[in-house]
């Protein structure tokens, strides 16, 4: 790594030609999005065209949970999807699954099979393309090398991937114009234990659906002609934030390549302080990358809707239309993969780390979560009069109870070494789990608790609030009046109600959303059980609960959950103090967050619901603690290498240059005071770096001696991270003082602007 390589790469970024991709055409015109959407997905519509009607009907019953798929059905589907895939250039298939690594895994197998026959005493081999039902239903990857938290030994290698029939198969582009058939799957051990993220998500979705149905059955229909609800599912819209930087400059930053974030680097004079990047004009090169990415995602049936610049320079966001949560999780992982691959084609690098650059806005993955019925009803829709919409209010207080009882558990679900730089003391949303309702909905809850009418905000009168909003007159004749929502948005809240859903804003951009959604589903299911039990007692022998019954239960839970409702600035110090008074946990580090998985209140709930077995939950705790410790260790060792092999040598070279210059000036009879002053300013900083490196090396030596996983994670947080920050602080000062031609790594100003 040298300053020359940095200068050359910066010059190349300016002269590099952009990538040109032709948009799909049809009859001489660009195709509409609806025409290419889902063309690489083996959807139910495609299945209905290719399967015999009895087979298709049997499959529909199976995915609804009414039947177990049989061999005849599996073989028929396997044959149909093989033909469909091979018509589109597929040569291989893979069971695509989600190990506990925040990413996906796959093992490719070709459709090739050899058939041997004997003719005239000679063996003749024939090549065939086959894909059987048994190959579709399950595969057997090596389970020993994936995180298992002690559930599996290295010599116990057998594990199974099993087709998730509710998630459609799809095609991804392969090399040389070929493609690969992806079969979404769960991943379990030989004994049936969940080794992945998806199995527990599916379990949590089922227990939440069952708990919701139990409550709905007790409430009865809203009207005589209302269609009976048969199924409930969660919906999810996952806003994905990310950074895009030049790939050439990225290749010169070992910290970015190894850890995903910059371990060194100071802010340039201009970054995000003018607030001009957010929703600004998308740079041409970025827009080209986004457009190609969207085109691929449309073909894969991913309903991406929104793209825009985010707050920080070089930061962007992509957001989809809401879908059933289990599909939305798969689609988010596909989105991250496509972003990664397409960015490379444009000589860009996508960064999903929550805080790749110190001092500017970090990236989140805002999860917009709700519950919907098979009749099309959103159970979190307040309607025009939420104060009398008791069905909505029962589900609302159930969710608030989930936060009140298991806020620490939800905090564990969003904890990671990378997200730790956003949460808690570093950046919003904070490490305190609270909910934002908005002034009007907050008053609905307060009015029920206090048995009073609703307020009219800005007036001393009282009457019912219409959640549909008010009208704003802009006082400009050429502009129409606009509808205004009665609830403003709170961008500081980790869990905010936004009209007809909750936005879980604290999830990290790098994370798979499976685990946090699993914990949220489970906590809400547990709360629904409590609400349903109380409502059952309240209604007595009546077939359905009355309005008075529901109001009484709602009032009880409004009081019990009031502590988690906060309408103010979650970033403020005053909220930290207020939360402490309310008894809300303020968990600002990962080891403390992961410990919440072992809290009896949380572990008992997850065991009783059947979402995690005892061994599965313990292994999850072990995996998270170990990964956190390893992430910090890798960062510490990377920083040490950068300082010793790059930063200190460049400082020595510059000091030598200053000293030689001062000597030459002195020999020539000129004043060398400026050079000597610069040398005096730099020298103590270089010494400080050497001292800090020594402390970091000593801490690493002690770190590797620790065997207990909890102590290891604590040492990573309390020792390694602290010494890293100290070393960085000195190096970042040095960056401002060293001559630019000597500095080996691309600076923030170059990483932000060369896109």
From TrEMBL:
InterPro entries: Gln-synt_C, Gln_synt_N, Gln_synth/guanido_kin_cat_dom, Gln_synth_cat_dom, Gln_synth_gly_rich_site, GS_Type-3, GSIII_N
One GO BP annotation of this record: glutamine biosynthetic process
Recorded superkingdom: Eukaryota
A Gene Ontology molecular function term of the record: glutamine synthetase activity
Domain (GS catalytic): residue spans on this chain: 197-647
A Pfam family matched in the record: GSIII_N
GS beta-grasp domain residues: 91-192
PANTHER family xrefs: GLUTAMINE SYNTHETASE, TYPE-3 GLUTAMINE SYNTHETASE
Stated family: Belongs to the glutamine synthetase family.
This protein's name: Glutamine synthetase
Annotated source species: Umbelopsis ramanniana AG
Lineage of producing organism: Eukaryota, Fungi, Fungi incertae sedis, Mucoromycota, Mucoromycotina
């Amino acid at each position: 790594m040298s300053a020359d390589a940095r200068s050359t790469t910066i010059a190349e970024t300016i002269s590099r030609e952009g990538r040109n991709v032709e948009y799909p055409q049809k009859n001489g015109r660009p195709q509409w999005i609806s025409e290419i959407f889902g063309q690489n997905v083996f959807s139910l519509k495609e299945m209905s065209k290719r399967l015999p009607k009895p087979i298709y009907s049997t499959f529909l019953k199976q995915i609804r949970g009414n039947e177990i798929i049989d061999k005849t059905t599996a073989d028929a589907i396997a044959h149909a999807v093989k033909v469909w895939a091979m018509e589109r250039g597929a040569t291989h298939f893979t069971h695509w699954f989600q190990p506990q690594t925040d990413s996906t895994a796959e093992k490719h197998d070709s459709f090739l099979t050899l058939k041997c026959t004997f003719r005239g005493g000679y063996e003749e081999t024939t090549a065939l393309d086959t894909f059987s039902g048994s190959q579709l239903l399950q595969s057997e990857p090596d389970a020993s090398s994936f995180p298992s938290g002690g559930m599996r030994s290295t010599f116990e290698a057998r594990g199974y991937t099993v087709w998730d029939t509710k998630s459609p198969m799809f095609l991804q582009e392969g090399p040389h114009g070929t493609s690969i058939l992806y079969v979404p799957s769960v991943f379990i051990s030989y004994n049936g234990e969940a080794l992945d993220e998806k199995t527990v998500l599916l379990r949590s979705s089922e227990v939440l659906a069952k708990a919701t149905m139990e409550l709905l059955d007790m409430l009865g229909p809203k009207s005589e002609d209302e269609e009976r609800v048969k199924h409930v599912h969660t919906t999810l819209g996952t806003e994905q934030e990310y950074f895009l930087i030049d790939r050439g400059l990225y290749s010169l930053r070992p910290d970015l390549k190894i850890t995903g974030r910059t371990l060194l680097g100071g802010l340039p004079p201009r970054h995000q302080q003018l607030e001009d990047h957010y929703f600004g004009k998308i740079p041409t090169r970025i827009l080209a990358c986004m457009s190609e990415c969207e085109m691929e995602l449309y073909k894969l049936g991913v309903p991406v809707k929104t793209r825009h610049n985010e707050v920080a320079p070089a930061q962007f966001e992509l957001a989809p239309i809401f879908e059933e949560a289990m599909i939305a999780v798969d689609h988010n992982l596909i989105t991250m993969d496509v972003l990664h691959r397409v960015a490379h084609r444009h000589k860009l690098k996508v960064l999903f780390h929550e805080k790749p650059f110190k001092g500017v806005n970090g990236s989140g993955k805002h999860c917009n979560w709700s519950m919907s019925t098979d009749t099309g009803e959103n159970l979190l829709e307040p309607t025009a009069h939420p104060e009398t919409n008791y069905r909505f209010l029962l589900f609302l207080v159930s969710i608030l109870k989930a936060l009140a009882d298991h806020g620490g558990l939800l905090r564990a679900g969003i904890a990671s070494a990378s997200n730790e730089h956003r949460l808690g003391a570093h950046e919003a949303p904070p490490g305190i789990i609270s909910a934002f309702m908005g002034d009007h909905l907050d008053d609905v809850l307060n009015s029920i608790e206090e048995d009073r009418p609703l307020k009219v905000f800005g007036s001393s009168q009282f009457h019912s609030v219409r959640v549909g909003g008010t009208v704003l007159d802009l006082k400009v004749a050429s502009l129409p009046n606009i509808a205004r929502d009665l609830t403003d948005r709170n961008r500081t809240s980790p869990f905010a109600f936004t009209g007809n859903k909750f936005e879980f804003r604290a999830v990290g951009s790098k994370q798979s959303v499976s685990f946090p959604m699993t914990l949220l589903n489970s906590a809400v299911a547990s709360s629904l059980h409590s609400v349903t039990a109380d409502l059952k007692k309240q209604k007595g022998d009546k077939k359905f609960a009355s309005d008075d019954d529901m109001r009484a239960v709602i009032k009880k839970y409004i009081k019990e959950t009031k502590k988690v409702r906060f309408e103010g600035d979650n970033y403020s110090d005053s909220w930290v103090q207020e939360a402490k008074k309310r008894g809300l946990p303020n968990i600002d580090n990962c080891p403390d967050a992961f410990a919440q998985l072992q809290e009896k209140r949380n572990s008992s709930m997850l065991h009783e619901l059947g979402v995690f077995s005892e061994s599965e939950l313990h292994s999850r705790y072990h995996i998270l603690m170990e990964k956190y410790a390893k992430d910090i260790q890798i960062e510490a060792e990377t920083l040490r290498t950068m300082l010793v092999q790059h930063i200190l040598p460049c400082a020595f070279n510059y000091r030598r240059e200053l000293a030689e210059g001062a000597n030459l000036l002195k020999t020539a009879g000129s004043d060398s005071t400026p050079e000597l002053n610069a040398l005096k300013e730099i020298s103590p900083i270089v010494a400080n770096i050497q001292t800090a490196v020594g402390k970091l090396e000593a801490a690493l030596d002690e770190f590797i001696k620790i065997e207990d996983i909890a102590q290891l994670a604590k040492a990573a947080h309390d020792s390694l991270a602290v010494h890293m920050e100290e070393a960085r602080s000195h190096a970042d000062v040095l960056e401002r003082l060293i001559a630019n031609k000597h500095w080996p790594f691309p600076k923030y100003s170059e990483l932000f602007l060369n896109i």
